């Protein structure tokens, strides 16, 4: 490759491919370097999100949710089904088809926008050059005016439970079990542990989640986290807090099992599982990415060091997505990709990092934006809260889906919305309404004075906004909870 590009993007995940497309839309000659290939050596675009993350996990969550609905929840509607079975191979094939459709779609978008797709491992050299080592071993160098690093992240592994991609797997392996494990262990009660633990639990696995911390989902609003644990436990997840895994031993020849040792307080315990998922977080991918002297530095946690606008310390070199600080979320990386593309062309685009929604796609979904009650309390802020339970929502009852609540937090003096935390049906889509409201600096009264369609789940957000100032209609108003 001897061409000179205005922009070279390293990585084609949601941060990289979006950055590349936006750069091309803005008229820049753009290449995107991706190292991932399939078994036919064809470049796989889309990164973790499309190939082994957001999309395949949601495909399995939707399949397994439908299975539980048909098995356990159709009878209340008067629908009888007989014995409900799951064919795992069909479920996995559906997931793979969706992944293929979407990753192929990125290739189509690259073509339509004129982005050049380059296969290979990219390494940033000094002077805004990118060295590319292709899957066949050939090495070339691309000159660029701007480089955007979007190398993403990979699962963290822990010495007591080394991944063997057979019995002990990471999130990627957990998306491809060829049968429902009888007993499934999960290390880590974070997003992946709860989502993928739910998938296999719904399909019949006995699931034990071992979490090192004493607090469940500590970054979440504590009231919502408590409700989430209660609901997931009721669904059958055996979530054990304060459990530090110390070792694992795989045994058996034909039918292998793994015995996991862990400390629960001062007590040493063991559990035997057919499969074990290790889901203890992800780390930035920066292996062989930065040549000495390229001017890009890492922070103390191994992320590429960037400023508020994703510029590294090397002029003309940017980094976006999971490889930089902030939540490891696809939409966060995509917005950073757009921001960098636009700033290269001189626009003043910025991201409001206080308004990034976060969702756990269990059922019910758990979604949040903004500050939690405990954060505001710790900061000594004056706030008021409105809570509306879905059990009082006509639409949720009609759908037989009334677990959970909407919690809206507003500033006591200005009434400006500071945070929204939801566990409930379609929480991901409901919280998005409050993301928009917060972006526009809305007060809870603005939401209270807005007309909501009836009957909708959104009415729960409306009622929570009314409840902030003690005006809810469909629940008795406690005295408005003020600090
Ligand atoms: P990645 O998607 O990791 O992409 C990086 C790409 O760069 C990869 O394709 C990699 O091969 C390539 N690459 C790396 N180094 C090089 C190099 N040197 N040269 C060339 N190419 C390179 N987030 C959500 O927001 N919602 C969800 O529902 C969600 N679900 C998830 C479920 C699971 C099971 C997992 C594992 C993650 C999930 N995430 C979810 C997180 C989400 O996938 C990541 O935040 C997102 O993919 C990060 O995007 P990225 O572009 O920064 O990196
Ligand atoms: P996580 O950080 O959400 O959870 C990891 C959990 O493992 C934590 O609760 C942690 O305390 C625990 N842990 C760490 N070490 C442990 C040990 N040795 N023993 C027992 N427990 C231990 O990480 P994750 O679930 O692996 O997900 C990784 C990233 O992927 C997250 O940052 C998340 O943002 C992203 N992701 C997002 C979604 C989504 O948006 N719906 C879904 C999946 C993944």
Give a description of the structure.
The chain is 30% helix and 25% strand. The protein is α/β, with parallel strands linked by helices. The longest helix has 26 residues, at 88-113. It has helices spanning 14-25, 47-52, 54-73, 88-113, 171-174, 191-202, 222-234, 330-344, 373-378, 394-398, 427-439, 444-448, 459-468; strands spanning 4-10, 30-34, 116-119, 121-125, 129-133, 139-149, 153-155, 168-169, 183-187, 206-210, 238-240, 243-251, 257-264, 267-273, 275-278, 282-284, 317-319, 358-360, 365-370, 383-389, 405-411, 417-424, 481-482. Strand 12 (243-251) and strand 13 (257-264) form a beta hairpin. Strands 1, 2, 3, 4, 5, 6 and 17 form a 7-stranded mixed sheet that branches. The mean pLDDT is 97. Residues 10-16, 33-36, 47-49, 53-54, 57, 121-122, 150-153, 171, 192, 285, 289, 321-323, 328-331, 333, 361 line the site of flavin-adenine dinucleotide (FAD).
What structural category characterises the helix and strand content?
Answer: alpha/beta
User: Cα distance, first to last residue?
Assistant: 63 Å
Task: Give the overall shape.
Answer: globular
Give the beta-strand count: 23
> What do the pLDDT scores average to?
97
Q: Which ions and ligands are bound to the chains? A: flavin-adenine dinucleotide, nicotinamide-adenine-dinucleotide
Instruction: Report the uncertain regions.
Output: none
